[in-house]
Amino acid sequence: MTNQSRTAVVRLVGEFTVILVGVFAALGADRWNQERIRVQSEVLHIEALVSDIRADAAAATEVLTFLPEAKAARDSLLAAVEGHGPLPSDLKAVIIRAWVTVVLPPTLTWSDLSRSGGSLLISDRGHRRDIAEYYAVREEAERFMGRGELRGRYPFVEAQYQIGILENPPRTDAPEAFLSFPDMRTRLIGLGGHYAVMEAYLPVLREASDAVLERLGEEGG
């Protein structure tokens, strides 16, 4: 082989090597960029889930804090209906305090992830399991609290619209209508059942939110 031929071969080998190095470098850069995007997306979704769960905890805490006041309002109304005391002078305000309920924020982030299979984006299997278990607890709490609201709160609220106590100004005969309304005592007792369901499930939900937030590296309180 002549020197010219050897030079041509070396040049071809060199060019081929450069091409290979460029291809592998491009593939490596692409894989790195895809991994960077995946990690960024995972971080954003976990941050959104943490924000959602913290909002759940805040809603549960707010209602648990207000429940004693709601129960006192309901007790004063029940006492009046049973003839053990007068109706509160601020009847409309007391009625509104008594019908407290909890409205948890929508599960937008987790619902979107679950529906699209995007929950697999969360690489830590333990985190996926913890988050899924939390939302299972939340779903159960919502289901039972919703039943409690339908059986307890809703019939009581419905009666107030029929009585006219919520009109502005309230009807002049509203206090008398409240006392004589059919099954008002039963409706007030059912309202107490609604409180009992929230008192049973909201602490469980709060405990579950604290636990998952701690495992995700956040403060739950």
How would you characterize this protein structure?
The structure is a single chain. The chain has 221 residues and is mainly α. Helices cover 79% and strands 0% of the residues. It is built from 6 helices and no strands. It has helices at 3-81, 91-98, 108-116, 125-163, 174-180, 184-215. α1 (3-81) crosses α2 (91-98), α1 (3-81) packs antiparallel against α6 (184-215) and α4 (125-163) packs antiparallel against α6. The longest helix has 79 residues, at 3-81. The termini are far apart.
Blueprint of the fold:
Layout (H helix, E strand, L loop, with lengths): L2 H79 L9 H8 L9 H9 L8 H39 L10 H7 L3 H32 L6
Number of strands: 0
End-to-end Cα distance: 80 Å
Largest sheet: none
Specify Rg, calculated over alpha carbons.
Answer: 31 Å
Number of domains: 1
Beta-strand proportion: under 5%
Whole-number mean pLDDT: 85
Query: What is the string of helix and strand elements?
Result: HHHHHH
Number of helices: 6
Poorly predicted tracts of residues:
none
What fraction, in percent, of the residue positions are helical? over 70%
Structural class call reads: mainly alpha
What sort of overall outline do the alpha carbons produce when their principal axes are compared?
A: rod-shaped
